[in-house]
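Sanity check

After download, print the first record. It should look like this:
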Amino acid sequence: MVNPADSDLIRFSAAEFDVIFPFHVSFGRDGIIASMGRSMRKLSTAVRPGVRFADVFTPKRPEEPFDFDRLTAGPGRLRTVCERSRGTVLRGQFLAHGGKMFFLGSPWLAEMSELIGTGLTLDDFAAHDPTLDLLQLLQLQKIVTDDLHSLTERLKAKSAQAAEAARAKDVFLASISHELRTPLTGILGMSEILAEQVHGPLNEKQLRDIHIVQTSGRNLLKLINDVIDYAKAGTGQAELHRQPCGIETFCSPALERTRAAAEKRGQRVMFVNEAPGAQANVDARRMTEVLVNLLGNASKFSPEGGECGLRASLAPGEVRLEVWDRGIGIEPDNITKLFKRASKKGHRASRRSMI
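Expected structure tokens:
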């Protein structure tokens, strides 16, 4: 902005003034244009000597007409005018000097496309013009926006690929589970018929072999179900079928399944039930699987001949289940990594330590 108090100190040659204010327009008390800057001539052919300023420009605020005396009485105010023929908006100040009124401003452009539309270039603006800073900021903003748009498109493409891979995985799991379950159901069904000796008596060795087939088949079916459950949990599709049931409903099967393997290592799997008859609203099958995994892990990292177990107790508004063992434990530095996906850590005492 120009300080009107120093207007009488402005002493420039015509060439210097044109460089500093390339979009200036001067007019007399009669409103007739006397001169204009080099860039103003390029912006509008309607701006020329002998033409009334008010015929070329219109104030953005109609209540502020281009009255010489009113403009003289209110110097220094930032005003907005519009060039009639092209609609270009200019912002600047009116300054009276030497019997003339000078409009010292520049086009107010909000986008780089507007600069192109005016036919101007950055060289047409004065070096100190704030419009240059705005245009450079807009240009930088456009570059950042374009980069962000490109990055967003790449992320969308990657997300689509990941979604397609997840869908293909789900289709594969659904297909493979059907293909595996169908013959396995037949094998288990026939083995049960043989074990019941429907078609005739079997000797002890034959019954033992049939039992092995049944046990292996059930283990395989459990493995298939576990794989499917894991895949569903990873995609948020796992379903829980909650219903009230006694805690023994899921604690007892989990203990039985764990003891078979633990006894081979001479371990005792203990159950301390401090909440007999307690009810919980849970998915019993899922809870059994959770306890089997925790108890199996406790047994795995306990020494041979050691102990591990399950304790059930009551807390305000809940049933608390605690799996414990006498194993090597977890280093304090690794406690924060508990429950993180696929996290394994070594131990100074044993490489069998795992979180």
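If your output differs, re-run the checksum step. Summary of this record's structure: The chain has nine helices and eleven strands.
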